[in-house]
Amino acid sequence: MNSVKPILISKPKQPISKLLKTFFIIIHIVYGHDYGFVKYKSTRHKFIIKLSTAVFSASLATVLLILISKETEELQNVIWFSSYVFMNYAYIIMLLIIPERNTFYILQEHLRSIDSEINADTSSYFLDLKILLLLIITIADKIITTIVYCWFFGPCINNIFTQILFMIPCSSLDMPIIVYYFLFHATYMRLITMRKFINDRKFKPKQMQIIYKSLHDTVENIKNAFDPLIIFTLLTSVPNIMIIIYIAIKDTKEGKKNVSAFINEAMIASLIMAKIFAPAIGASSLSTEVAKIKVVLHDMLLLEEDETKIQDIKRFISYIEARPFKFRVLKVIHLDATFPVAVLNLCVTYLIVILQLTHIY
């Protein structure tokens, strides 16, 4: 399906909070991740900011790679630390090339526009607070996990300054997937409000169909823009899970791994799986809520006597059936409840093959 540029249905009554804007601008400055919250005065200004972000991030990555190679003793640790730097820079570039009309900031504007149409109180969703808390917790978790691992279980970068500098790419890798999850969660909250609004029987079917279309167009466009980041996350996270499990099995078999280290690595693997499964679970909840909206509309047909409104409701139902909020990543990977099963099945299959080839068992 071709990308359709959605338009704001009406001017949002409630602006995006200054706290959320400030937080994402800080993320842009510190991590180089551009989610659209920095507003550009002109095309030239946008080019300068984006180029500066790319160049500064590349310079920081180069310096960090040089320091890691000098101050890390084993080659496998140099490769492991360097992979975080490369992955973060890949995220920076992919976020910088996302069109301005498809950023996370634009999603917030469109959702607030829809709230104005259905008389919803944007602040009642507490989405700003949820986003801020989850991002802060994720950054803190990465920092604490790295400190604990380096202190108790494994060798780390010798120089404390380099270690602190390394925390910039290390703590930022989960941000794109969290933002991707909130794309679906924020939409889910609007669908619930839409269902309640329809259930009050004071809505106009044609107007509600336009709102539904606008919501679908916005989510689809921004999801498509973020798809390359999700594919990249899968390509890096799934092998990471398999490596962690393989090393844990191998060390347990050889008697090298104590219980605390095993628990620590099991927690890391579980957090990675939770991270990559969250968007699929969030996306699957959308189709469930859409099905509930269809039931409400069908119930209304039983009571409605106005023939014109009946036809409008039927047309709305047909449109929902044509666009039911079911998504795929790059038209290949289904974002629904089958996604975690498919990933786990892939991990288990290839893990068995690796164990057989390495003759551990």
Question: What does this entry show, briefly?
Answer:
With 361 residues, the chain is mainly α.
Report on the architecture of this protein.
- The protein has 361 residues and is an all-alpha fold.
- It has helices spanning 18-31, 43-71, 75-96, 104-117, 127-153, 160-172, 175-199, 205-254, 259-303, 307-322, 338-358, and strands at residues 328-329, 333-334.
- Helix content is 76%, strand content 1%.
The best one-word shape is globular
Give the distance, in angstroms, between the N- and C-terminal Cα atoms. 48 Å
**Overall SS class:** mainly alpha
Write down the overall mean pLDDT: 84
Radius of gyration: 23 Å
Biggest sheet descriptor: 2 strands, antiparallel
Instruction: Please list the strands of the largest sheet in the order they lie side by side.
Output: 1-2
Q: Using DSSP, what is the number of strands?
A: 2
Give, in order, the helices and strands. HHHHHHHHHHEEH
Query: If helices are DSSP runs of H or I spanning 4 or more residues, what is the number of helices?
Result: 11
**What fraction of the residues are assigned to beta strands by DSSP?**
under 5%
What is the helix content? over 70%
Low-confidence stretches: none
Describe how the helices and strands are arranged:
Elements: H1 18-31, H2 43-71, H3 75-96, H4 104-117, H5 127-153, H6 160-172, H7 175-199, H8 205-254, H9 259-303, H10 307-322, E1 328-329, E2 333-334, H11 338-358
Helix pairs in contact: 2-3, 3-6, 3-8, 4-7, 4-8, 5-6, 5-7, 7-8, 7-9, 8-9, 8-10, 8-11, 9-10
